[in-house]
Design goal:
The complex is a heterodimer of chains A (about 220) and B (about 120).
Chain A (H helix, E strand, L loop, with lengths): L4 E5 L4 H5 L1 H9 L4 E7 L18 H16 L3 E7 L9 H15 L3 E5 L7 H15 L8 E5 L5 H5 L4 E4 L4 H10 L1 H17 L2 H6 L2 E6 L5
Parallel strand pairs in A: 1-2, 1-4, 2-3, 4-5
Antiparallel strand pairs in A: 5-7, 6-7
Helix pairs in contact in A: 3-7, 4-5
Chain B lengths: L1 E2 L2 H10 L5 E8 L4 H4 L7 E9 L1 E7 L4 E7 L2 E8 L1 E4 L5 E6 L5 E8 L6
Antiparallel strand pairs in B: 1-7, 2-3, 2-9, 4-5, 5-6, 7-8, 8-9
Classes of the chains: A alpha/beta (about 220), B mainly beta (about 120).
Chain lengths: ~220, ~120
């Protein structure tokens, strides 16, 4: 079976923070990547300094930024699911899972990346991970693609153990930076700080562009 | 968005009194607040496209500003408003921003529903 990666995350920029290295490495190897993005980050707080967005213009700006980031990473197929930021946990999980299942049936991914349910910190992250797992659980275990989950809670290793996948992304660090920069309305202030820290070699920031870590979903739990 | 000019806001509010309007009201600490600072709670609330009619509305304060809308059977209130725009669809977009540009509160009025 030919490789295909499916990334399912709720907010424009989640992919650049968490998965840009993996996506860039896969694209370098010629593997197609589909990214299903749940919302347009309609409820984001960063309006720019000086201000360049308001609550009603933000979704349009973030849509363009998402497309720019996908271009930077070489994503071959972007699906915008059109749900609203901060509401995903209140949606009907069966219907949410149906939409993900339809994409799975269509693109037949060999690898899926999403948030680890209960380890996403943001309710939309958890809801998205839960919907993906819900869709996958309907499939026979042997047909499920490999599933990498992002876990960002502070107690993740206490609960889930050590990450299963530790990816060296140094050769695509620049692509990750470009993807992050594309999300200007969310990352401008952060990147200013990051570039300063990068020059100083602050380990935490260096790590961002060196490694990505993922947990296999633990199906028997 | 530009810094609030109270007269312009008051004029808009007066023009829309006793008419059916749609409101977007929101306040937020940011969803990651408690993750970043364990001593702080994450608090977010929004209501979008609440439909009502107000009989009286005022903008007060010296900046940040407060807006109160007196409804037939209650009140709608927002405090901490710093910036505004009346957009091309004649919607009043009021917001309170932290100095770094992060939105803390929004109050918006429109005669047609905001996109859901």
């Amino acid at each position: 079976m030919s490789e295909h990666v499916l990334v399912v995350l709720p907010h424009p920029d989640d992919e650049s923070f968490g998965v840009a290295g993996l996506i860039a490495l896969k694209r370098k190897a010629g593997v197609p990547v589909t990214y299903a993005c749940g919302t347009l980050g309609e409820m984001g707080r960063n309006m720019g300094s000086p201000l360049f967005a308001n609550r009603e213009t933000l979704p349009l700006i973030r849509k363009r930024e998402l497309q720019d980031a996908c271009r930077a990473m070489g994503v071959t197929d972007l699906r915008m699911l059109g749900m609203r930021d901060k509401t995903l946990e209140f949606e009907d999980i069966d219907l949410f899972a149906d939409r993900i299942e339809a994409i799975i049936q269509e693109v037949k991914p060999t690898l899926i990346v999403t948030f680890y349910p209960d380890h996403g910190v943001h309710p939309d992250h958890d809801a998205t991970g839960r919907a993906v797992i819900h869709a996958l659980k309907r499939m026979p275990a042997e047909e499920r693609p490999v599933t990498y989950c992002l876990a960002i809670t502070k107690n993740r290793e206490d609960v889930l153990g050590a990450p299963n996948v530790i990816l060296d992304i140094r050769e695509v660090a620049e692509t990750k930076m470009e993807a992050l920069k594309a999300h200007r309305s969310q990352t401008e202030g952060l990147i200013r700080q990051m570039e300063e820290d990068f020059k100083k070699g602050v380990p935490q920031v260096m790590n961002w562009f060196e490694t990505e870590t993922y947990w296999h979903y633990q199906w028997n739990e | 968005m530009k810094p609030i000019i109270p007269n312009e806001i008051q004029e808009y509010l007066d023009q829309h009194a006793n008419k059916e309007v749609y409101i977007h009201l929101e306040t937020t600490t940011g969803a990651y607040n408690a993750h970043q600072n364990e001593n702080s709670m994450t608090v977010v609330a929004f209501i979008r496209n609440a439909k009502f009619r107000y009989s009286l509305a005022k903008i007060t304060g010296f900046g940040p500003f407060r807006v109160g809308l007196k409804m037939e059977e209650g009140w709608t209130y927002a405090e901490g408003l710093t910036d505004f725009t009346v957009d091309e669809q004649n919607r009043l977009i009021l917001a309170g921003h932290h100095p770094d540009g992060k939105l803390a509160i929004a109050l918006q009025i429109s005669t047609v529903p905001f996109p859901s």
